[in-house]
Amino acid sequence: MSATRPLRLTPERAAEWFAVANVAFLGVDIAIAHAENAYRVRAEWAPLVFSAAGTLLLLPMALGRGGAAWRWIEQLVGAGAVLVGVAGMVFHLHSGFFQQQTLRNLVYSAPFVAPLAYVGVGLLLLLLRSAPRSPDELGWWLLVLALGGFLGNFGLSLLDHAQNGFFRWTEWIPVVAAAFGSGFVFVLWLRPPAAPWPVVAALVACQIAVGVAGFALHLWADWHRPAARLTDRFLFGAPAFAPLLFADIAVLAAIGVWARAQHPQDRAASQHDAGRRDQP
Amino acid sequence: MPFRSLFMAVVIGTALVVAAFLVNARRPRVERDQPSPALVEASGKCAGCHRRESSAIVDQFERSQHAVRGVTCLDCHRPLEGQASVDHRGFVIAKSLTARNCAQCHAGEYEQFARSRHAAPAWAAVNGAKDFTAQQLAAGERWHKGWVDRAPNPIATLEGQAAMASGCNACHAIGKPNADGSFGTCTSCHARHSASVELARLPSTCGQCHMGPDHSQIEIYEESKHGALFAAQRQRMNLRADPKRLTTADMSVPTCATCHMSGLEGAGLTHDTTERLSWFLFAPVSDKRPNYERGQAAMKDVCSKCHARSQIDAFFTRAEAVLQATNEKVQGIVAVMDGLRKDGLVPKKPFSTPLQFEEFNAWHYYGRTAKHGAFMGGADFVQWHGNYELLRLRVSIDDAAAGLRAAHGRP
Known about the structure:
The structure holds two protein chains of two kinds.
Chain A: E1 3-4, H1 11-35, H2 46-62, E2 65-66, H3 68-94, H4 103-108, H5 116-128, H6 135-162, H7 173-190, H8 197-223, H9 230-236, H10 244-260, H11 264-278
Helix pairs in contact in A: 1-2, 1-5, 1-10, 2-3, 3-5, 5-6, 6-7, 6-10, 7-8, 8-10
Chain B: H1 3-25, H2 29-32, H3 37-42, H4 45-53, H5 55-62, H6 65-68, H7 73-77, E1 85-88, E2 91-94, H8 99-103, H9 107-114, H10 120-127, H11 134-143, H12 154-159, H13 161-172, H14 187-190, H15 197-201, H16 203-206, H17 217-223, H18 225-233, H19 256-260, H20 292-303, H21 309-342, H22 354-376, H23 379-408
Antiparallel strand pairs in B: 1-2
Helix pairs in contact in B: 4-5, 10-13, 17-18, 21-22, 21-23, 22-23
């Protein structure tokens, strides 16, 4: 039923670890985000339960264990993630935007882009467990997902910072970073496999820098909020982990470029891995 | 990287940034241009939750002038010096709001209110002086000597705390001393989230407290020609008109606020409801107020928007004649009761015999009603609800006094 694949680092293996890490960390992030709403609606527990269960079910994949049954379970987790994400987006918009379709309600509704992160991870899982494909095709799809992530970061940072009116000019930095990141990932996606590594390195470094700086600035802003209770400052303040999505998505883009730029022997190894994984 | 790719990436990135700027610029200034991030967030985030939790307050606020003028929730709800604060879902807000919060923007209106009888004297009339700080006591006594530094109302004390809290103080809290040094709350007349001028101009708003046998102003108003006209022409009036630009075209029929407070066509707009009064009508025996001349002149100025000066003077002369006659009738009853008290036929402890209640009713119900009826054009209240009852009580008290004296052998 199960088979062990060697823990050799390939783009596919990196993408698997990326998927498991994201399913797990989304749960942590949502635990904090929904605590802000005091879990008023029972459905707010759904992504937490899903992330916890999904992480456990994906652990064999992260550890290189495989097989038909696990493949089916991983696909189920992927499909579930898509479902949770789409439902979450609808629920978030329902918190305000569906009542009055105004720009203000879009800004102050629960962030509708955020649940789409589950959709992205779900599609990634389905991609990784789909029929055998070339690394080039894998890279092509990884870049599509990364492009979605960059556009998501653009929307998230725009709407989140609009909530406090871009009070500090620094709040435009992630918007600009995500916009140009989207542009560069788009052309990387269009380009033939040869990777312009300096450009990719600069893009990833820039996005990681924006993410880490944002993380630090959000922590600083929360620390200086006027709330008396420390927990309130972080619970209701700037979402500390949100900027790290910039680094996260940049890593996915880098994996995508890596997959497309693999040497023929590496491609063969990857295809061999994929072939073993698909054996019943 | 080929130039073509670089060019496309830059064009896409720039287009997205420009789109972001354009979308953000389309937001109303009130949502963007605030002095602090918390105030920006308050322009939309509060409604996000409260539309689910207590949606009526959001609807009321959104229809208010406060919303039109760009006031945010936090403008009013932020804690000021002397106010207890509480953490509330990422915002620090005042535990409860007072007139001081309103005074941040409406300082002039608050100052007028603070020197009116709606402020310290209203609270002291029931609760006495015990709740005031030294500064509040001094401020109240400055404008109303003897009406703030006083004992609690004996009836309220006898009826107990529960009756005081839900009965007397429901109205008299309009002048409650607050921990932040201010008096009362503006919401008694303007409501909370609607912050409504229209509401404050409605007779029914004043009538929430100025009603019943002891201060039957709303009943008198509704019986008067003013009240009848208001009922007939309410739909044609613009009760939302800017107070500083109010004309008779907006309010051709007077409500309580028109005569006592409004800036109708240049009359000095005031929140001191005492300013245009000339007599202490509520007192057992009415005296002239310290600002008698100025107060009456100001009231007559408002009357002159509709009435000829000769009519106005004649009206006031007739009303003052009723007042003097009522004073004499009440004084007569008090003299009988003082005689009984002096002879030990009525106990000194208040409200311990039915006869003491009759004495109290004489001035507190019927004397007041007769005088208010005379000054507000309520003929039935001058006559049947006022003078007739005073006459009946006088006969009843004289009879009871004669009986007591006969019973105790004290002619």
